[in-house]
Amino acid sequence: MDAEDNGREANVTIEPLIDGIFEQVARGRFSEVHFDPFEGGLRIRYRRDGELADYMTLSENDAGVPNLSFKAAAASMIGRLKELAGLDPEVARIPQDGFITRSFPQLDKTLHLRISISPTQWGEKVYLRALGPDIAIVGFERLGLDPIASRRLNEAYQKKGGVIIISGPTGSGKTTTSNAILQLLNNSERNILAAEWPVEFAFSGINHVDCKFDIGYSDEVAMREFLKQKPDVIKAKLENREMSELVFLAAARKNSLVIGNIHVNSAAAVFARLANLGVPSFDTANYIFLSQAQRLVRKLCDKCKEEYSPSPALVRYLKIDEQFIGRVELPQVAPSELTLFRPKGCDTCGGTGYYGRALVCESLKVTPTIGELILHRATEAAITKAAIEEGMLTLRDAGLRQVILGNTSLEEMMIRV
User: Fold this and answer.
1) Which of 267, 265, 284, 286 lies closest to 275, judged by CA?
2) Residue of 370, 223, 173, 369 lying closest to 291 (CA atoms)
């Protein structure tokens, strides 16, 4: 048997393993898959509800497939993934990126994956991420927003000539929230443009630009072109001085609504970050409609979550009283009669006690009072205090609200928020 026959046999043998992984993603059980090489092995891990866990490990002792060595199995698996993504199978010393689409008629679903391959000391690492179109979203409640954040976001996205800032660390759902806004605005009467790197999912009716930094087509270049095309809505990242200036230029001069993403930890921290990037306080005070910071928390599995009564000491420590319950718009219940829930684990949730995720947000509306504080370079703490007085829920407030509703556990909220 020659080398070509060996390669063909390896691909046939490895195919069920790859299809099994893809089916788990298509069923919504995995959001990411990592193929991590190490000396003498290849570890395959998956991410579910934000947490990484082992799936299997290929090694000299167990190649994962019959009649194949570890090296042949690993090479065949990575080669097959490159083939499915239309990447060059012979390239192994430089990174490659692409997309994979697979149909699962039995699930009535088409799977879209982004693939990123990078060389490491022990071989090529492969990263797969499921891309969800979220085209069925009809309101922010579907994202798990509390009523206050939902009202404020609904009000902000219907305006023109300003900026909505969505902030948070990587993995906090900024792209999902931004895409939900774009879809709600998506109609034939609006010119919608998005500068992205990479384009994770292309919606019909929205002009997505896949920025190519290696050829000089950066998001700043794309943004300058957008300004020539009478944009109604723009989606962009505020990562540097030039891009930030262009975003506020679009809002001020073109009367555009800009959905901007930025990496800061709180809604009030956005203003200091933009000042550091050189954006005048006049612009941030007058053109930002809403600054929303957010996190993702794991939702308790409805099939197995356990209820319990928190101790009076815990309720006091959490500062849950009648005033708090009213402020976060919860059904009236005496703090002494609260029932909370904790994870248990079952077959439905894979033994984790959690299934799915929900957003926890603090939505800071820029009112005249907040605008004055921004103009005078007030501290983050002063802006936060004023926003709370005007009805904003902090991340902790919104997280505790999810806990009281039974959507997540107290431990999960304390870790994530």
Assistant:
1) 284
2) 370
In 3D, which of 271, 372, 354 has the Cα closest to residue 306? 354
Q: Taking the domains of the chain in order of start, what are their residue ranges?
A: 3-130, 140-416
Secondary-structure breakdown of the chain: helix, strand, coil percentages, each rounded to the nearest 5 = 40, 25, 35
DSSP at 376:
T
Give the helix/strand (H/E) hosting 286: helix 281-287
Q: Does residue 55 sit in helix, strand or coil?
A: strand
Tens of pLDDT, residue by residue over 358-412, are: 899 999 999 999 999 999 999 999 999 999 999 999 999 999 999 999 999 999 9
| Separation between Cα atoms, residue 350 and residue 111, nearest integer Å | 22
Beta strands at 207-210 and 96-104: parallel, antiparallel or unpaired: unpaired
The beta-carbon contacts of 329-337 under 8 Å, at least 24 apart in sequence, are 329/146, 329/147, 329/148, 329/401, 330/401, 330/404, 330/405, 336/312
CA–CA gap between residue 388 and residue 383 (Å, rounded) = 9
Question: Which CATH code fits 140-416?
Answer: 3.40.50.300
Residue 417 corresponds to which tokens in the numbers above?
């928020």
Asked whether 69 and 63 are in contact (CB, 8 A), the reply is yes
Q: Which fold has domain 3-130?
A: Beta-Lactamase (3.30.450)
Q: What is the DSSP string of 153-202?
A: HHHHHT-SSEEEEEE-STTSSHHHHHHHHHHHH-STT--EEEEESS---P
Given this chain, do its domains 3-130 and 140-416 carry the same CATH topology?
A: no
Long-range residue pairs from 54-59, CB within 8 A, at least 24 positions apart, any chain: 55/21
Q: What does the CA dihedral 152, 155, 159, 165 come to, rounded to 10 degrees? A: 20
Dist. CA 70–CA 39, nearest whole Å: 11
Residues 6+ apart with CB under 8 A from 318: 310, 400, 410
User: What are the CA-CA distances from residue 389 to residues 184, 326, 327, 365, 386 (Å)?
Assistant: 30, 14, 11, 12, 5
pLDDT in tens, 339-364: 999 999 999 998 999 998 889 999 99
Q: Which neighbouring-strand residues pair with 111?
A: 102
Question: Which token pair is 415?
Answer: 């870790």
Give me the residue label for tokens 């200036």: 245
This prediction has a pTM of 0.86
The residues, ordered by sequence, that sit 6+ positions from 389 with a Cβ below 8 Å of its Cβ are none
Confidence of residue 10 (pLDDT cuts 50, 70, 90): very low
